[in-house]
Amino acid sequence: MQEGNCKMSDDVSIEIMLDHYRSPRNYGNVEGASSQITEHNPLCGDTLHFSIKVESGIIEDIKFVGQGCSISQGAASILTELVKGKSISDAAAISEAEFLSVLGIQLGPNREKCALLSLNALKKCIESLHI
What we know:
The chain is α+β, with helices and mostly antiparallel strands. The chain has helices at residues 2-22, 70-83, 88-92, 96-103, 109-127, and strands spanning 35-40, 47-55, 58-67.
């Protein structure tokens, strides 16, 4: 019974990822961004550009543009929803394991790199703020 539940949960998580890929949230560039960065995964060719606007230590706005697989682009959309409105310290503290858990799908090592491209871009964006 539990195996069936696990499969159903995987299916739901995959559908959520595909929905974010097809209809990305927070897509575009932030006007007057506090920080922005472009990250590239040379292994698969995925590219993400993140821009964030921080006010009083809170991520007021975050957007991305990119090209790549459904995992890299869907994960970027999910991440922007996850951190928008959070403190930069809370966003910076998100671990790779936590983010992969939020995505809820089992990925091999190469696909994990696709999923984590957005988290790496966000962390570099936050680091460049020098706050």
